[in-house]
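Anyone have tokens for Delta(3)-Delta(2)-enoyl-CoA isomerase? Sequence:
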Amino acid sequence: MCTLEQRSNLFILTLTGNDDEHRLSPTLIAAILSALRQVKSVATSGSVLITNSQGRFFSNGLDLPWALAAGCRVKALSRLSQMVESLRFVVAELVSLPIPTISVVQGHAAAAGFVLALSHDYMLMREDRGVLYMSEIDLGGCLPDYFTVLFRAKIGSGLARRDILLRGQKVKGREAVEMGIVDGVWGCEQSLRVAAMELAERLGSRKWDGEVYQKMRKGLYPKLCIVVGAVEGRILPAKL
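Reply: yep, here.
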């Protein structure tokens, strides 16, 4: 599951459970979405969101075991589609938040977990344990449209996108910096979390206008906003 903590102007969203892979099940996706909407409703000028996790995983992607437990291929694909579409709303909310957002990847971020991390404005990563991996090519699954658009929006190098999406390259900390995916890497969990807090405090001290920040972010990623439904006049459902 996840928790949301407010420390002054900082909001800290944590995927909880040290032994958990933080697979994005319908329940966890709904909890994250609820937390983001709570942040959006009370955020003020100077607010910042940090998303992190406990244990060795940031998130190991969608809850494929839950999908496969449906008992047949048709039902499994239906469950998978349900999770893909639910996560679309999470990406839409992250793109629409009127505050800066930071993801803290202290462990593995695979497939949809990578997508969740990449949907933030800033990505910080642990050097020795952090791994980014898009498993779809190895599992024989096609990418949802908004996954592809997100990678094109957030990762400038075509070669990097090729290696991640078409080779299934497992990207570690230093490589992620060199490929332009993350903003920096740190050698241990403590230093990583301290760096995230320091970045959040620097960003929050700027006290940017939330409406302006949101509009400028959407202007940077117009195609992404369209495919996830984060466009003016489009109202996302109150509940999944």
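The chain has a mean pLDDT of 94.
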